[in-house]
Design goal:
The protein is of the alpha/beta class. It has helices spanning about 15-30, 70-90, 115-120, 125-135, 140-150, 165-175, 200-205, 230-235, 255-260, 275-285, 300-305, 335-345, 350-365, 370-389; strands at about 1-5, 35-40, 55, 60-65, 95, 105, 160-165, 185, 215-220, 245, 270, 285-290, 310-315, 330. It has an 8-stranded mixed beta sheet, sandwiched between helices. The longest helix is centred in the C-terminal third of the chain and has 20 residues, at about 370-389. The chain is globular and about 65 Å long. Residues about 45-50 have low confidence and may be disordered.
């Protein structure tokens, strides 16, 4: 079975959806599928051949060279080129992560553009939401992808199936009018390596804190969207003191100023991305991810698979596998600082931490990328059977 996976940008530094796409492609190849990952060539490669391909770990990476100073035009030309490639090469399955009309399987790994826009502005005051709404009129790339997704999800467009990462994403798609019978929940998956428990004391001692101080971990590349502002407020109001490690490549300066204002300087560390996140998982007691929006967060799935309790929100599809009091806490609103602080307090309790650790092997199998790939294969086979009728 020949599979084309379409994702415009492939850069592991971006994390999230792009890392998941690469892991997914490799696991599909391990199932014996002929997998080609079609992506836009980095701008420095614009003069390379459009047909140049490279195989890595049984996956063929095919960069598509497009040249333009405008990001919008680069996206438009990439989508047009993908449609031509898929038409000419006749793949059995065109699995689109970036929407394109050649797809017969669409997997919006970032959720639908409609929900993404709505939730990414929900954290702002009303006047700023309105300003951003007006600003989106000038975001040509976003408008193009929004309309392309709407066309792909048109109820009249027969033969297209959606692989939703969570029930949350399934609801988003159905609310746009797409037929529910053509949506399959293929819950997100992750690859995790066993924790290096021996490194826990070493990593924690490097922070300069008492070994007995509970350690809460926050991992994100978009601090605002993932709720860091709210988490710092929760740290300032918590009944029990805990240390906070902030890992990720976003600009820490606004949050360092907030940390200073709240008197948290001695208990918060901004560690960037130099230390592998696996080391922080080993050192932490709880992962806090009070996100305003996540279709199905990788970092939450990784933490749960490793036995680390999580505090997150109902706007995260990954919360669907969590049982309060066993895996952590799911709060209703990221803006509810009191509930966030109380949730972390509960997740830090020994019974919750022990229960999550005991349940980790089961969750590791349930949330694996290998399982995700097997379920996608079942969907692919269903799509092909329907096409042959």
């Amino acid at each position: 079975m020949r599979i084309a996976i379409i994702q415009e940008e492939v850069d592991l530094r971006r994390g999230g959806a792009e890392t998941s796409t690469l892991e997914m492609a490799r696991h599909l190849a391990l199932l014996g599928l002929d997998v080609t990952l079609i992506h836009r060539a980095p701008r420095g490669q614009a003069e390379q051949s459009r047909t140049h391909s490279q195989s890595v770990e049984e996956v063929t990476f095919r960069p598509v060279a497009v040249s333009s100073r405008s990001r919008s035009w680069r996206t438009y030309r990439f989508v047009q080129a993908v449609n031509r490639i898929c038409r000419d090469e006749r793949f059995d399955i065109v699995h689109a992560v970036t929407p394109c009309l050649a797809a017969n399987v669409y997997q919006p790994r970032g959720g639908t553009y409609t929900e993404t826009i709505a939730r990414s502005t929900a954290m702002n005051p009303a006047w700023l939401r309105e300003l951003k709404r007006l600003g989106r009129r000038f975001n040509v790339r976003q408008r193009f992808l929004f309309r392309l997704e709407r066309a792909l999800l048109s109820a009249r467009r027969a033969g297209v199936y959606v692989a939703a990462l969570s029930d949350y994403v399934q609801r988003q798609v159905v609310e746009l009018g797409f037929p529910a019978e053509r949506v399959r929940v293929v819950f997100n998956g992750v690859d995790v390596a066993p924790l290096d428990v021996a490194s826990r004391a070493t990593v924690r001692s490097g922070l300069g804190w008492l070994q007995t101080l509970p350690l809460v971990l926050f991992v994100a590349h978009n601090f605002k969207l993932k709720g860091l502002r709210e988490l710092l407020c929760a740290a300032a109001t918590a009944k029990t003191a805990w240390g906070l490690v902030v890992a990720g490549r976003d600009d820490p300066r606004p949050y360092q100023r907030q940390t200073n204002r709240l008197g948290l300087t001695s208990r918060v560390r901004f560690v960037g991305t130099e230390t592998p996140v696996a080391a922080w998982y080993a050192a932490a007691d709880v992962l806090a991810h009070p996100t305003w929006y996540d279709p199905c967060s990788r970092v939450v799935l990784e933490a749960l698979s490793l036995g680390l309790p999580v505090v997150t929100t109902r706007y995260n599809g990954a919360a669907e596998v969590m049982e309060t009091g066993r895996h952590g806490v799911v709060i209703d609103e990221p803006s509810d600082i009191r509930a966030l602080a109380a949730g972390i307090e509960l997740a830090l309790q020994r019974p919750v931490r022990d229960a999550c650790r005991v349940d980790a092997p089961r969750l590791r199998a349930q949330l694996s990328m290998a399982r995700h790939a097997r379920e996608l294969l079942v969907l692919y086979e269903h799509v092909l059977r329907r096409e042959r009728k």
